[in-house]
Specification:
Order of helices and strands: HHHEEHEHHEEEEHEEEEHEHEEHH
CATH topology of the largest domain: D-Maltodextrin-Binding Protein, domain 2
CATH architecture of the largest domain: 3-Layer(aba) Sandwich
Shape: elongated
Strand content: 15-25%
Helix content: 40-55%
Radius of gyration: 24 Å
Length: 304
């Protein structure tokens, strides 16, 4: 029995919950995978996986073995990546998660040059407007706007800051008028992103003056692109980070509203698993993204 291959298979089974998926990930047949798993259990003298006709689940011994072997395999991958780093030729899969808006606006445009430069590296993008657990979901790099992570094993690195702005289509403002103060928003159709922090409560600031407004939205959506499209259609006034709507503002498709008032700003951050050695694939992608942001002056544009 190849113990390393068997352990690798077991970890895949534990993480996918399927012998078939694990065998596909390792490019071996299901029958060969089954034989490896049985051989590993016989070698250890314990049952690791409880098999039923519908699913696989780990036994208590399997859970303990998984916790230990996952860490060992992670250390081995880290050692391999450290060697790869010395040649700057990363291989394998880079798994990234970010909101759909960020993926469309800032990850996808980076991919042609990045994948051309590192052809042996493939990129797996998880576009999601909720925050996946980085470790449990095998995420290499997350791009988020929250300021901290509950898990101390996650490192945060700042990428850029952005204002949150209100904006509407010119046609909407011509028909319904321009709000002059935050309080006027009660008379307008509001378009709100539901995953924002306290999305119905807007804390405005202008110098030393503060005003808090509770809005009753006409439209709520769990994706920022839906909110943007609704605003472009003249449905109402959106509340979004400026990085999402900057191109529409610059082109005049949307017009800023109450722009002399500030909402709490957001910081766009990288989040990744804390390790002694940052994998080359993660470092190189972060460097490419940071260089792109600096070259275009995004933070200056989004905070002005």
């Amino acid at each position: 029995m190849d113990r390393f291959a068997a352990v690798s298979l077991f970890v895949q089974v534990a993480e996918t919950g399927s012998l078939t998926k694990a065998s596909e990930a390792l490019d071996i047949s299901t029958s060969a995978a089954s034989r490896q798993l049985i051989a590993l259990e016989e070698h250890l003298g314990v049952r690791l996986v409880q098999r039923t006709t519908r699913q696989l689940s780990l036994t208590d011994a399997g859970l303990e073995f998984y916790r230990r072997t996952r860490s060992l395999l992670s250390d081995l991958r880290e050692a391999e990546e450290a060697v790869t780093d010395s040649t700057a030729r990363p291989t394998g899969v880079l798994r990234i998660t970010a909101s759909l808006s960020f993926c469309l606006l800032h990850i996808e445009p980076l991919l042609p040059e990045f994948t051309r430069r590192y052809p042996e590296l493939s990129v797996d993008i998880v576009a999601a407007n909720r925050y996946y657990d980085i470790i449990d979901n095998n995420i290499d790099l997350a791009i988020r706007t929250r300021q901290f992570e509950a898990d101390s094993n996650i490192t945060i690195r700042r990428l850029a800051a952005t204002r949150r702005v209100l904006a509407a289509a010119p046609a909407y403002l011509e028909q319904h008028g321009w709000p002059q103060t935050p309080g006027d928003l009660a008379q307008h159709s509001m378009l709100v992103y539901t995953h924002a922090v306290d999305p119905h409560r807007l804390a405005f600031r202008q110098g030393d003056e503060k005003q808090e407004v509770v809005v009753k939205p006409l439209l709520e959506a769990s994706d920022g692109q839906i909110v943007v499209q609704a605003a472009l259609s003249g449905l109402g006034i959106l509340v979004q980070p400026k990085y999402i709507v900057h191109a529409h503002l610059a082109a005049g498709r949307l017009v800023p509203v109450l722009d002399d008032w500030d909402l709490p700003r957001l910081t766009i951050n990288f989040a990744f698993q804390s390790r002694r050695h940052l994998p080359a694939k993660v470092r190189l992608f972060m460097d490419a993204m940071t260089e792109r942001f600096e070259r275009h002056g995004y933070e200056r544009l989004w905070t002005s």
